[in-house]
Design brief:
With about 170 residues, the chain is an alpha+beta fold. It contains six helices and six strands. The termini are far apart.
């Protein structure tokens, strides 16, 4: 209804100025584009904070500190880790999984992350695609992961972690 009135006032009023018509059309075009394609822009500060979460996790992991590593995850029953053994729900369950899978610093190896992409889903929800490398004295394990992070109380934390080992090791990408 409102659009009909606007449309008629633009195109069917004899004394309406052509320049004003063009300006209104440009405004409407930009309005439509912004409302239909309005994905939030990832600010450098948010990107750096998200990267910092993973850097901190690398540091804690490489010290053999699973408690410190777990600080990157939201401490909630809504947290989910999904890997080859299926999903683990809740912060305690995810922590227990890490402790059982990596009972010592030697079993943990040395962790490095490579971030491929970070994008915002909303202003407080981000998706991160990356690659992990676990180095041991005589071998290396690698794979890919997808994280969903949420910004809560000004802090980015991992809400969902889907990690898969890969036989394909492409460290060049």
């Amino acid at each position: 209804m409102l659009m009909d009135v606007i449309f008629q006032s633009i195109f069917f009023v004899d004394n309406f100025n052509i320049i004003k018509q063009k300006l209104i059309l440009k405004f409407l075009f930009l309005l439509v584009i912004n409302t239909t394609n309005g994905q939030p822009v990832l600010l450098d500060s948010d990107k750096n904070e998200i990267i910092s979460v993973l850097k901190n996790q690398e540091n804690f992991w490489n010290k053999g500190d699973i408690d410190g590593f777990m600080q990157g995850y939201v401490k909630s029953d809504y947290l989910v880790f999904n890997g080859s053994s299926g999903p683990f729900y809740g912060w305690d369950s995810v922590k227990d999984r890490y402790i059982k899978t990596y009972p010592s610093k030697e079993k943990m190896g040395t962790l490095n992350f490579k971030i491929h992409n970070i994008s915002l889903i909303t202003s407080s929800v981000a998706q991160l695609i990356g690659q992990f490398f676990l180095s041991y004295p005589k071998s290396e394990v690698s794979g890919y992961f997808t994280l969903i992070l949420i910004k809560s109380k000004g802090e980015w934390l991992i809400l969902s972690d889907h990690t898969s080992r890969s036989e394909y090791n492409d460290s060049i990408k």
